[in-house]
Specification:
The protein is built from two helices and ten strands. The protein is of the alpha+beta class and 146 residues long. It has an eight-stranded antiparallel beta barrel with strand order 1-3-4-6-7-8-9-10. A hairpin with a 2-residue loop joins strand 1 and strand 2.
Length: 146
């Protein structure tokens, strides 16, 4: 009887260890799998003058998350109300911590002030969603692979 218990215990220890290793692979960081080019599918600013769909206003954003941790791309903010047209190079760097992407840039834009949460997109990989306050306006944006 004692010999059988030792076999069962050995099988349990090995089985539980293998199960833990198998589960561990599903929770590893996403890493460079989120690297790629992103464009907005939702981009709304809310301020004292109301809500603006930046996409409908003519604003554009191309954000490239390069595998080496650098960023590139272009931000074009269309003129709306008192805001003049603005064009900004998206050069900088990006870091992933868990499921959050943060951008560092020399130019002060809402992009560098936004923590983007990663969520799976069933058709194209990953979406990046963030909300921040910038220049007195709340910015809500969802980026999807270009």
């Amino acid at each position: 009887m004692r010999h059988s218990w030792q076999k069962v215990r050995s099988i349990l220890v090995v089985g539980v260890g293998m199960a833990l290793l198998a589960c561990g692979s599903s929770t590893e960081p996403l890493g460079n799998s989120v690297a790629g080019s992103y464009i907005p599918i939702v981009w709304v600013t809310v301020g004292t003058s109301g809500q603006t769909s930046e996409i409908q206003a003519g604003s554009t954003l191309l954000l490239n998350l390069n595998p080496d941790g650098t960023t590139s791309g272009h931000l074009h903010l269309a003129a709306t109300g008192a805001r003049p047209v603005s064009d900004v190079d998206m050069g900088g760097s990006w870091v992933q911590t868990g499921t959050t992407i943060t951008i560092s840039q020399g130019v002060d834009t809402f992009v560098r002030n936004t923590s983007f949460e990663i969520s799976p997109d069933p058709t194209s990989g990953w979406d990046l969603a963030g909300t921040t306050t910038f220049g007195g306006n709340q910015v809500q944006i969802i980026l999807t692979p270009a």
